[in-house]
Amino acid sequence: MAAGGVLRLLGLAALLLPGAVLCRGQPGAAERRCFCQVTGHLDDCTCDVETIDAFNNYKVFPRLNELLESDYFRYYKVNLKKPCPFWNDNSHCGIRDCAVKPCLSDEVPGGIRSGSYKYSEEASNLAEECEEAERLGAVDGSLSEETQRAVLQWTRHDDSSDSFCEADDILSPDAEYVDLLLNPERYTGYKGPDAWKIWNSIYEENCFKPQNVKRPLESDKGHAFYKWLKGVCVEKRAFYRLISGLHASINIHLSARYLLQDTWSEKKWGPNVTEFQRRFDEVITRGEGPRRLKNLYFLYLIELRALSKVLPFFERPGFQLYTGNKSRDAEMKNLLLEILHLAKSFPLHFDENSFFAGNKKEAAKLKEEFRLHFKNISRIMDCVGCFKCRLWGKLQTQGLGTALKILFSENLIEKMPGSGSSYGFQLTRQEIVALFNAFGRISTSVRELENFRNILQNMR
Asked: Is the dihedral of CA 141, 145, 151, 155 positive or negative?
């Protein structure tokens, strides 16, 4: 059967699902079914959906898109060959759209491949000082073991105490550069038990949920789940909403860039409204769809807040987006700073000071649990059977993990000197690329919602 016929049958099958009577009747009914509750203020926040829509779609999204098309942000080094650490099933998706095409060595700008980031005289002098310190440290037996361990931790730039992700070893021979623009996040056909196993492991084992509390859609009613969620502390509630928001964002991309036509002459990708409704329509999802979309906005606020907080790190004269093209790199740094100042100007930021407040000992314990749970989720990404899904899963979890690292490093960022090295707080290039691309995915999701809203408004 032709691919177009198959897709038409899939659309018909969705219509025949129990409870999946898609919106019929007055114009705008379909739009209300998905979006009528996605309005107004967000839980645990002072912000509202409409303010985010306007701020993102007309200010942030266009600028961020331009930044992410630049060389510094389009090349991401990743190891897609790491085995799953949790179960032995290492089966991989055989669908061609699951494949990832890595870059050839000469396709990646020399400045990125070299791992250098130096343009300014100040930065060059600092590099020489570090090299000298490293040489002296190698022969200085008077340093205590404790001090040597501290120096070693600093040189790694990302010790375990502040890392929310299981980072890839980018020096591994299995780590390769991938051009994100040539390997976009979109529908690949990866679904079924394997995909369900990934998300089930994330929600059931890493979101602080007791086993006797069933998630919505696993039982007829989600009242018990939301009663539990409302009763837990704000940190655990936020954790669930971040994961749910990330899941929603991924589903929006799969619906917005769906394979609509696959013939010998061309492939056509575009919005699949039936797929969007299947995931977010209030009736089809038994009320879950609108909640998922509101969690997307919550995730947006968290990552936007991190960008506003990290501005001093990028404002330092010694920091450069180094690719080897000096004029273009300077232009992109100016654009990056423009985006960060824009993020800082947002009037209704999430207040992260409510996190880990109260008893210091209990707060520290909860923060560590929060960090380890999220780090575990980043490891689950190595179990995803679709390589393209694995790529974007790893990037987006690292990006969100970097945002959390920033929010919980506020004191270190505030103490950072205006020039020279920021010894207390560091971001690797991998973290920087992941941070902005992850926010780019969330920003694009919010923008895509406007497109789906317009399409659904004209449906009967």
From this structure: positive
| Dist CA 395 CA 399 (whole Å) | 6
CA distance 275 to 272: 5
Helices (H) and strands (E) in the chain, counts: 19, 4
Which is nearest to 382 in space by CA: 82, 138, 94? 82
Angle (CA) 236-240-246 rounded to 5° is 145
Strand partners, 38: none
Q: What is the pLDDT of residues 3-60, one digit of tens each?
A: 444 333 334 333 333 333 344 445 567 778 888 778 877 887 778 899 999 999 999 9
> What is the rounded distance in angstroms from the CA atom of residue 377 to the CA atom of residue 381?
7
Distance from C-alpha of 306 to C-alpha of 408, rounded to nearest angstrom: 9
Q: How far apart are CA 207 and CA 202, in angstroms?
A: 7
Cα–Cα distance measured from residue 259 to residue 269, given in angstroms and rounded to the nearest whole number: 5
Do residues 38 and 288 make contact, with C-beta atoms less than 8 angstroms apart?
A: no
Q: Look-up: residue for tokens 């130096």?
A: 118
Angle at 323 between CA 318 and CA 326, to 5 degrees: 65
- What's the CA gap between 101 and 231, in Å, rounded? 46
Residue-wise burial string across 229-250, b where 16 or more C-beta atoms lie within 10 A, e elsewhere: beeebebbbbbbbbbbbbbbbb
Residues in contact with 293: Cβ distance below 8 Å, sequence separation at least 6, in sequence order: 34, 35, 38, 248, 280, 449
Burial of 10 (0-12, 13-18, 19+ CB in 10 A): middle
Tell me the C-alpha to C-alpha distance, in Å, between residue 156 and each of 149, 150, 167, 315. Answer: 11, 10, 12, 22
Mean pLDDT by 10 residues, the chain (460 residues): 41 36 54 80 83 96 97 95 83 77 90 66 44 41 46 41 74 91 92 89 89 71 80 90 96 95 86 94 90 94 95 91 92 97 92 77 86 92 93 96 90 75 80 97 97 86
Task: Find how far residue 48's CA is from the centre of its chain.
Answer: 21
* Residue 268 in tokens: 């056509």
In the chain, how long is the greatest CA-to-CA distance? 81
Residue 436 to residue 452: CA distance in whole angstroms: 24
**Within a 10 A sphere around the Cβ of 23, how many other Cβ atoms?**
21
Strand-pair partners of 259:
269
Report which DSSP code applies to 383: G
